[in-house]
Write a structure and sequence with these properties.
There is one protein chain. Helices cover about 40% and strands about 10% of the residues. The chain is built from 17 helices and 14 strands. Strand 4, helix 6 and strand 5 form a beta-alpha-beta unit. The N terminus is likely disordered.
């Protein structure tokens, strides 16, 4: 049953309604349940909150005991970015793999199955898909989270993903508007800038968002990026020109606008989260995402009070805050009436998609391995969106198929010689992630292939570098499903 504290005034309740906070632990803390009773309408979950499907279902039931239409959001892109399977790796390939296959029906099926699993656990709002066109190969934060570099391809798969996810009763949140693909900076760390002109932006960045809107996406997430051709002064999240004029008026979008995490340095390090939240809502945002790094009652109180103070100071029109809160409630009503569809489950669709996404290059016929190899994982630092909790690679899957497989992790200038020494006489499987972005990784491969030309190379990032090795397998992502697909090929199963 939905309950509200009787002494919570409308302005304060609206300020709470537009927040999407996080928390720590695998059960809802008392402060969070109290805030839901006072009007909080959304909660964001992260890997730290999820231990198992059963535990997650119990957690969401706990939240709904306070408010039956609470929005429970999670960042579950599949592929490299997973929260449901944060400790094992995702059963689904990510966007880049789906784009490599380029079968929109398959993308719809994958998103529908992912949505079904979310809904079965009580999650009804997914901060996905990424609609970013990965036009900059050096992008440090998007990469395999994008369907690809071609705007038309990204557009059709974004629409397919939205359709599939929402068919399961889970609201899609298409991100990161107006497009984070042409950046060389991670907005978790600083404020990126895109210097493309308005024509390029319209043809490239905006095409997938038009497709998502046409497909009925229930939410759009803003990007903490500066796009001078649109607004030379403020990042998109804080720009009325971007959120209200472009997204609402020009593109005709009428759903929920959600900010990316306000604690990200692009905002917190420039405007601060309180000032940033007031500016975001005034600019046209309806929901303030916070909680990835800040996850306590004090953060909720600070942001609530900042919004209320912004209204009273005349910086944030009260009707704008009321409109934002009503848009949150409207989406909550949609999720409450869109029953999760448990029928049509397809537990193997992720693995089938991962197998189809493999691109294999070799100098000649490949004989599958019969003896356990040595897996040399050339491991870069994971970006914050992916996190370092989630395992990746092919080791576990190869060990299941070829018992006795051994492995090591290597990085830096000595990675190549160290991997050679560790491998000894075993056949080497070198696993890389975005070789083209890491000179030390390319040098390590040079060393391995010079000494051991029969080395198998598995690229689990964006396959931008030229393929090399006795066998080169591009998986287009580092999910567990992609690792298994590559391992099956190596072992010939």
């Amino acid at each position: 049953m939905t309950t509200f504290a009787s002494d919570t005034d409308t302005l304060t309740r609206d300020a709470l309604t537009v927040l999407q906070p996080g928390f720590t632990g695998t059960a809802a803390p008392d402060w969070l349940l109290r805030r839901i009773g006072e009007g909080l309408a959304s909660v964001g979950l992260f890997g730290r909150n999820i231990a198992s499907p059963e535990q997650l279902a119990a957690l969401t039931a706990q939240l709904r005991a306070e408010r039956d239409d609470v929005l429970v959001a999670v960042d579950e892109e599949g592929g490299d970015v997973t929260r449901l399977e944060v400790r094992t790796g995702s059963s689904f390939p990510g966007n880049h793999a789906l784009g490599a296959v380029d079968d929109v029906d398959l993308t719809t099926e994958v998103a529908a199955e992912l949505g079904r699993r979310l809904a079965a656990c009580g999650v009804n709002f997914n901060w996905a898909p990424s609609a970013d066109v990965n036009s900059n190969p050096g992008n440090p934060v998007i990469g395999v989270r994008s369907f690809g570099a071609d705007p038309a391809l990204v557009a059709r798969h974004t629409a397919a993903y939205v359709t599939g996810l929402q068919s399961a009763g889970v609201a899609a949140c298409t991100k990161h508007f107006p497009g984070h693909g042409d950046t060389a900076v991670d907005s978790h760390h600083a404020l990126p800038r895109i210097d493309a002109d308005a024509t390029v932006l319209g043809d490239r960045e905006l095409a997938p968002f038009r497709a998502a809107i046409a497909a009925g996406t229930k939410a759009v997430m803003s990007a903490h990026i500066l796009v001078p051709a649109l607004d030379p002064d403020r990042p998109a999240t804080l720009s009325g020109t971007v959120l209200t004029d472009l997204l609402r008026r020009d593109l005709g979008y009428d759903g929920l606008i959600v900010t990316d995490g306000m604690e990200m340095r692009a905002i917190s390090g420039t405007y601060g989260i309180e000032r940033g939240s007031v500016l975001a809502v005034a600019a046209g945002a309806d929901a303030i995402c916070v909680g990835g790094g800040l996850a306590d009652d004090e953060t909720v109180r600070r942001l609530r009070d900042a919004l209320v103070a912004g209204v009273r100071a005349g910086e944030l029109p009260e009707e704008r805050l009321a409109d934002a809160a009503e848009r949150v409630r409207k989406l909550a009503r949609w999720t409450a009436t869109s029953a999760a569809k448990a029928d049509g489950a397809d537990s193997e669709v992720g693995l089938r998609a991962a197998r189809r996404a493999l691109k294999v290059t070799g100098a000649g016929p490949f004989t599958p391995l019969t003896a356990p190899p040595y897996v040399a994982a050339l491991t870069p630092v994971a970006n914050i969106a992916v996190g370092d909790e989630t395992p990746w690679g092919v080791t576990a899957e190869l060990a299941a198929l070829l018992p006795g497989t051994e492995a090591g992790t290597f990085a830096g200038e000595e990675a190549g010689p160290a991997a050679l020494e560790a491998a000894g006489p075993r056949r080497i499987v070198a696993v890389v992630r975005d070789e083209h972005r890491h000179p030390w990784m390319a040098a390590a491969l040079d060393t391995l292939l010079t000494a051991r030309p029969d080395t198998i190379v598995v690229e689990m990032g964006v396959p931008q570098a030229a393929p090399r090795g006795a066998l080169h397998i591009a998986t287009h992502g580092a999910s567990r499903a992609s690792g298994r697909a590559a391992a099956e090929l190596i072992a010939g199963t």
